[in-house]
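Hi V.,

You were right to ask for the full record rather than a summary. Here it is.
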Amino acid sequence: MNAAPGPFREPPRTIRSSADGVELAVYEVNPALEPPGHEAAHAAGHPPVLLVHGATADHTTWRAVGPALAAARATFAIDRRGRGASGDATEYSIEREYEDLATVAASLAGTAGVAAIDVVGHSYGGRCALGASLLTGAIRRIVVYEGAPVPRGVSYRPAGLLDAVRDALGRGAKEEALTTFLSGIVGMSAAEVDAYRANPVWPARVAAAHTILREVEAEAGAGASLETLGRVTVPVLLLLGSTSRSPFRIGTDALGARLADARVHVIEGAAHAAHHTHAAEFVAAVEAFLDA
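Predicted structure:
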């Protein structure tokens, strides 16, 4: 008997970034269920969707919700630069991430024979999706889960957090850097961090800890600001967990007020990882928006 397929098809397709030639790994997601007419649903007006992970993560963060989304539409998940099977470059800026996603969106749209695809981004990945839409017409709709920039005078970072992460990385203490980030910015409790340590993906998250500093610094720049990303014109769904830290709500409301076409949906009882803790509610909100 053949083993059940995993959440992602191997090997990933490789798409070269137009920015600096970095090779980007893009995984097709296996559907959780293929009901009769599954393929017809793809052809009947459901463009592909690209899932974009947040800080410290990789494509595997979508293992819970990806297959559910893939039951009705071709679904892909990227390893952003510096993660998983993707390459990296010596110099970093969030603008390179925008260019990466713009390139991947155009490639997936061209392969599918559609004008544009949809993008779902978690946290920093959502911010990258917004920036990418300013560079290409190949993005139709965007879902952002708690990835909005905050207004001036507000910060996601508690005082001293950046220095603490920098110090830990300087000492080679990657796990300490990661736990500092998770508790300080994400808002995870000690018990939640301990539970995360037991997850099989934890070693990969620790291995990516060196990318925390560059992303936390980049998201505070002008290219990722409320003023810049508030110029996005495609329809955007801003998702928010009702129990998340207050800066996530402040940023979501501020961005929603600026965007040309935005709606806000709150997932009750969720914090920053609703795509794991409230997967059914997350998928329902995303699909309702993409199919509207």
